Here is the input.
Amino acid sequence: MTSKGRHDEPDEDPGPLSIFDRDEDDEPDPADPDGDAPEPAPRRRRGRRLLAWTLAVLLVLAGGAFGGLLWAADHYASSVRRIPDAFPTLPASEQPSAVPHSGQTFLLVGLDARSDEPTTGRDAKAPAWQAGAQRSDTMMLMHISADRKSVALVSIPRDTWVPVPGHGQAKINAAYSWGGPALTVRTVQDLTGIRIDHLAVIDWNGFRALTDAVGGVDITIPRTIEAKGDAREWLAGTHHMDGAEALLYVRERHGLPGGDLDRTKRQQNFLRALMLRTMSSGTLASPSKLTGLLGTIGDVASVDDRLSNTDLYDLAWSLRDIRPDGVHFMNAPFGGFDTVDGQAVVLMDDGAASVLWTAMRTDRMDDYLAEHRTSADILGRDVS
Here is the structure.
């Protein structure tokens, strides 16, 4: 029985609509090699054409979005200011050997530039180094494990008494003043035996701007610290700090019982709060947010010119699965205070430090932390 207005023909199953499918009716008849294959039914032909166009449009849109993301990533990574000649020009035989498959080690430097103008970042108006104009006020070695599951940051106090090549014994922060990034890298490499892969530098103007750019950070002060001299009073409790207040927090040392050692812990505590804020917002796991983060960093910090745009983005993206408990902060092993030529200096415990540097050089920081959890100066939750 047929419906009104329809021809008497059997119902036809259109089959799966795919640009890769071909119907048996579309194939030539092998018994009639000279015959033409019958045309597909109009409905099937229209369906296939519609699907092909849909897939083409989706591919164009996806390609455009991906291309836009790559452009944005490259654009923001390009905004990160590069430092030329950041590494010593010594022959490889006179520098620590790189250990294959041992992760990456960055030297992080905070500058006391004594300048009202930015010296790092995209808007720098003054050079990142000018002889005698800047000293390193903060110095950390950051080791990223090869499996990208852990990060260890070790502070070297700025008053640490060390050999500075070509200048004899001096405070480690003088290396930047005398010879800029290259002499600083060489001094740290000679001290630790670790080959530095990359360098990142930020001045206090950049530090303040970065803090404001992320909306400030929350820092908990466990007990009230009374004002002392130029040092301000800090009330116990959680403080939401903007850039100006955070700068006071990380630079102060005169009101702290451990002086420069407590100061480095404050710097670590701030950096930990900043990292937690970044991780909790899902920035590292979102390509679009990550490009924005690169833009923010590019506004305030500078890195060595060996770190390409691709390297910078790939490194940040590779850390997307890192968890807060995989990031560890500590001070280099402390060997006491001393006075040398009228200068108050910090001494390093060379024996204990040698064990730490070996663990970092060979990518065994997790083992080191497990073995020295009670003896190492690891950052806790109670930071003055």
Summary: The chain is about 35% helix and 20% strand. The radius of gyration is 30 Å. The CA atoms of residues 16 and 182 lie 65 Å apart.
